[in-house]
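Re: that backbone. Tokens:
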């Protein structure tokens, strides 16, 4: 029981430290935003009429920049493939378990979007002029 309690105490201390760090970062960000607002006001920018919406940095997730497209092209070099086989081979190369259905579904969506972009850019073609609606039945080749 003592090990459990000491583990919980250690975890609480870590979280408290992260919370304090986050508070300090939030305070710093507030100061920087206030300084930028003041600088914009000097140049006559009207915040009331033109509010500035926040933007968010995109997290990469499973693939680095351009990695998915490179994987797809590499897979297609071995011959025409359908979406399911492309997804399976990507999961295999990335070391992701096939049984993880939520990850598989997410990667399938990403692969479909990437295939559509690549097809629109003329990098690949779908067989027999099939439309995006029946993308899952397409075989792709370079």
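Recovered sequence:
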């Amino acid at each position: 029981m003592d090990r459990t309690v000491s583990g919980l105490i250690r975890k609480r201390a870590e979280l408290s430290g992260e919370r304090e760090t986050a508070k300090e970062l939030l305070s710093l960000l507030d100061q920087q935003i206030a300084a930028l607002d003041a600088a914009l006001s000097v140049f006559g920018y009207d915040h009331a009429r033109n509010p500035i919406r926040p933007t968010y940095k995109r997290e990469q997730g499973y693939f680095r920049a351009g990695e998915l497209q490179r994987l797809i092209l590499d897979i297609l070099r071995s011959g025409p493939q359908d979406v399911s086989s492309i997804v399976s081979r990507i999961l295999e190369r990335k070391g992701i378990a096939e049984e993880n259905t939520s990850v598989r579904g997410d990667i399938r969506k990403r692969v479909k979007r990437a295939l559509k972009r690549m097809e629109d850019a003329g990098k690949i073609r779908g067989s027999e002029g099939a439309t995006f609606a029946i993308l899952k039945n397409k075989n792709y080749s370079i």
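The longest strand covers residues 125-126. Confidence is low (pLDDT under 50) at residues 129-137.
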